[in-house]
Design goal:
Blueprint: E1 6-8, E2 11-13, E3 17-19, H1 28-37, E4 41-47, E5 62-66, E6 72-77, H2 86-99, E7 104-109, H3 115-126, E8 132-136, H4 150-153, H5 156-169, E9 173-177, H6 186-194, E10 199-202, E11 206-208, E12 211-213, E13 218-220, E14 230-233, H7 238-250, E15 259-262, H8 268-276, E16 279-284, H9 286-291, H10 295-310, E17 338-342, H11 352-360, E18 365-367, E19 373-375, H12 385-389, E20 396-400, H13 428-433
Parallel strand pairs: 3-4, 3-16, 4-7, 7-8, 8-9, 9-10, 10-15, 15-16
Antiparallel strand pairs: 1-2, 5-6, 6-14, 11-14, 12-13, 17-20, 18-19
């Protein structure tokens, strides 16, 4: 089978599946169970500085968004960093690393944005023999209101400054965890690189309120009649995470910067997609909280089998493979023409494609008296909506028109090569020039 061994910025692990810094990695008991279940590494739940203890709420900490059959799509949490004593966490980390030397163990850290605070905690973390640290610049709730977490991650200058401190006082890998609660993810990533970061990890949770209790008139989860914004994670955030990962992977300023991918990774396929866009490892949280630690077995087996089928021997054959195909809209081939086709043998005559296209799209699907649905090529713009709403997999697909064929909708002959985009009327520069 394919080799899943991972070497990420010098941190070796038997596979690329790490548990993200979160409730599942808050103590020794959980981490040992995770390693026994087969996880390649863990990022220990975020440590804070010594001083006034962190106090978490004693009521509900999670809000949820559900899909069909009550499938968990998104999880909102208002939990803070670890509320356990720093010394306890450090002692447990040292024991776990000693017993599992082949697994990656990363210490997530969040302390005030002051050099003295970082200088004080880093030597103590170093004594645990952890493989590296992850700077938590992403948490959007609670700690951000105290000038930490995303309050730092939203200011590139702070990211670069703190990263430099950590590289000065810590001699192992420094990973910077980025917040998605920002307009352009490339700027904080570039700041981390300029500060000397060995890698970045993303995305942290998205600032959110998942729902409102209409009886209490309070955001959920509700604590004594009140609620607060929290961090949103789970399968629903995966598209946002993939986009931000790809932006860092293809930007000239950050190209080549190692990335640990986070955000809704639930299956081996999710992991493969993150890796294809440049991630050397992936971090998982919600899937483990939903299905338990054994979910990693399916991830490892599925990824390995897929790599075998594709002829990929190692993860290096996968990482970044899709990055060259991520481009700006203006570079897309406007001469690529497709039309929808309905497989009548698979069609269950539900009419969803017809309703969606007739009411909200291009009136490109006709319905015969016997409820047979056909595509009207002269109206079809290949928007893909019919495929997206169809409940039967592979019932509808898009078929490419060959060069030389006439597009029934436009009456134009399909060209073999892309037109010169610089002169295309859709190009803002060309329009401006006219």
């Amino acid at each position: 089978m394919a080799d899943l061994t991972t070497d990420f910025v010098g941190i070796r692990s038997p596979n690329p599946f790490w548990l993200a810094s979160a409730p599942p990695t808050d103590k020794e008991y959980n981490v040992r169970r995770a390693f026994e279940a087969g996880w390649g590494g863990v990022v220990w739940k975020t440590l804070g500085a010594e001083g006034p203890p962190v106090v978490n709420v004693n009521g509900p900490r999670y809000g949820a968004i559900y899909g069909a059959d009550r499938r968990l799509l998104g999880l909102n949490n208002i939990e803070l960093i670890t509320d356990r004593p720093l010394e306890t966490n450090l002692e447990e980390m040292a024991r776990v690393k000693a017993d599992y030397p082949d697994r990656a163990l990363i210490a997530s850290i969040m302390v005030p944005c002051e050099e003295a605070a970082w200088k004080a905690i880093l030597p103590r973390v170093m004594e645990t023999n952890a493989d590296g640290i992850e700077l938590n610049f992403g948490c959007p709730h609670g700690m951000s209101e105290r000038g930490m977490g995303s309050a730092v991650g939203q200011v590139p200058e702070y990211i670069e400054m703190v990263t430099r401190w950590c590289k000065q006082y810590y001699d192992r890998a420094v990973i910077v965890k980025l917040t998605p609660n920002i307009t352009d993810i490339r700027k904080p990533a570039a700041a981390a690189k300029n500060g000397g970061a060995d890698a970045v990890s993303l995305i942290n949770t998205i600032n959110s309120i998942t729902s409102v209790d209409l009886d209490l008139m309070s955001p959920m989860p509700t604590i004594d009649g009140k609620g607060s914004h929290g961090g949103y994670c789970g399968p629903a955030v995966k598209p946002i995470a993939l986009s931000m990962v790809s932006e860092i992977a293809r930007d000239p300023e950050t190209h080549g910067l190692p990335i640990s991918g986070i955000g809704g990774i639930t299956t081996w396929r999710d992991a493969a997609e993150f890796m294809a866009l440049g991630c050397g490892t992936v971090q998982v949280c919600t899937a483990a909280m939903t299905y338990g630690f054994r979910v990693v077995e399916e991830m490892k087996t599925g990824l390995s089998r897929w790599m075998d089928e594709k002829g990929y021997a190692t993860l290096d054959d996968v990482v970044g493979r899709a990055v060259p195909n991520v481009t700006d809209w203006k570079h897309l081939n406007l001469n690529y023409v497709t039309k929808a086709r309905i497989d009548q043998d698979l069609c269950i005559k539900c009419g969803r494609c017809y309703a969606a296209c007739e009411d909200t799209s291009h009136q490109a699907i006709g319905m015969l008296p016997d409820r047979t649905f056909t595509v009207i090529d002269a109206e079809c713009v290949a928007c893909n909506l019919c495929i997206d709403v169809c409940p039967v997999e592979n019932c509808i697909d898009m078929v490419q028109l060959a060069p030389g064929e006439t597009d029934p909708r436009t009456g134009k002959v399909v060209e073999a090569e892309p037109a010169d985009w610089t002169m295309h009327p859709n190009n803002p520069s060309a329009v401006a020039a006219e």
